[in-house]
Design goal:
Elements: H1 11-18, E1 26-27, H2 44-48, H3 53-67, E2 73-76, H4 79-85, E3 95-98, H5 104-111, E4 116-119, E5 130-134, H6 146-153, E6 158-162, E7 183-188, E8 201-205, H7 207-217, H8 224-234, H9 237-260, E9 264-268, E10 272-276, H10 280-289, E11 292-293, E12 295-297, E13 300-307, H11 312-325
Parallel strand pairs: 1-11, 3-4, 3-5, 5-6, 6-7
Antiparallel strand pairs: 2-8, 7-8, 9-10, 10-13, 12-13
Helix pairs in contact: 3-8, 10-11
Pfam family, one: Aminotran_1_2
Cofactor: pyridoxal 5'-phosphate
Domain Aminotransferase class I/classII large: 73-281
Length: 326
């Protein structure tokens, strides 16, 4: 039995289907910022020494400032590292996930032997032992207010809120309020900062939950370079503000190109957009012939997700490809 699940990325699949080399492609199949934070030279110490407590504490302080929170914070090797450990935290009772969404949640919990129920909206999470939703959601961008999430937390055993795409939407975050005892919030570093290969993320929540996650993750769960780069990037408030404004404008720009091509916007975030096309497989092929990789989904024959281009020539190529689609 395979445990591999469908995700964005994988330019090898793009080249097999449509030719070219990976360098020829614009990968818009993920929600990763294509204008990454500019990484300075990393200190030799970060490469050669075991990651230390001081570097970890600097990263936590930077994350606390960037996210505007006083919640306990645990750095990990990406939000995915926390997802892998959720089965050990799940209380008795139903596991419910607002779907469609990132498929690793259902996959990981099902492999642990839990019965997972997909539900169509956040209100249907009530009564679950473990309740999971992504906010804003991937791939349709659905949003649930912080006040509504606190209401849901009051009627479930454990609420897991994935805020991996919330950096440009800080008004949605639970982290600016008090920390409930039965809530875990996950944050991804690599998406907004455009450095997914660094493998850095955070779990935030009550100390008892974080201590269990930390014990299972083991020592040195975040590399020295990730600690150093992450702390510097999270302290860069100017870059964060400029990037948030640019991404918001770029989302509007992408929607206009798609609308001119006859596509309908189904939703999205400031890092990706979801469109309704006449035929998502055909639309993906049209973009693929222009060496632009996009994301389609097994649950819809029409939905196609696009990340946002990061340079003028990427925008030009997308515009030309969509004009041919029209």
């Amino acid at each position: 039995m395979t445990t591999e699940r469908d995700h964005g990325g994988d330019l090898a699949a793009a080249t097999r289907a449509f030719g070219g080399a990976p360098a020829d492609w614009i990968d818009l199949s993920t929600g990763i910022n294509r204008v990454p934070w500019p990484v300075p030279p990393v200190s030799p110490h970060a490469w050669t020494a075991l990651p230390g407590r001081e570097a970890r504490d600097r990263l936590i302080a930077a994350a606390r400032c960037a996210y505007g929170t006083d919640w306990p914070i645990l750095p990990l090797g990406g939000a995915q590292a926390a997802i892998q450990l959720l089965p050990a935290l799940a209380p008795d009772g139903a596991v419910r996930i607002v779907t469609p969404t990132y498929n690793e949640y259902a996959g990981v919990l099902a492999l642990s032997g839990r019965v997972v129920e997909g539900v169509p909206e956040a209100a249907a999470l009530a009564g679950a032992g473990m309740a999971i939703l992504v906010n804003p959601n991937n791939p349709d961008g659905r949003r649930v207010s912080a006040s509504d999430l606190r209401g849901i937390a009051s009627c479930v055993g454990l609420l897991v809120v994935d805020e991996s795409f919330a950096d440009p939407h800080p008004e949605l975050s639970l982290l600016t309020g008090a920390c409930p005892e039965n809530v875990i919030v996950l944050r991804s570093f690599g998406k907004f900062y455009g450095l997914a290969g660094l493998r850095l993320g955070f779990a935030l929540g009550a100390r008892a939950h974080l201590d269990r996650i930390a014990a299972m993750a083991g020592p040195w769960s975040v590399s020295g370079p990730a600690l150093e780069i992450g702390a510097a990037a999270l302290c860069d408030a100017d870059w964060r503000a400029v990037s948030t404004a640019r991404l918001g404008n770029d989302a509007v720009r992408a929607d206009k190109l798609a609308r001119d091509a006859g596509w309908n916007c189904l939703g999205g975030t400031a890092l990706f957009r979801l469109y309704e096309t006449p035929d998502s497989t055909a639309a993906r092929a049209q973009l693929g012939r222009a060496r632009i990789w996009s994301r389609v989904f097994p649950w819809s024959p029409r939905a196609l997700r696009l990340g946002l281009p990061g340079s003028s020539w990427e925008w030009a190529r997308l515009g030309e490809a969509l004009a041919r689609e029209a």
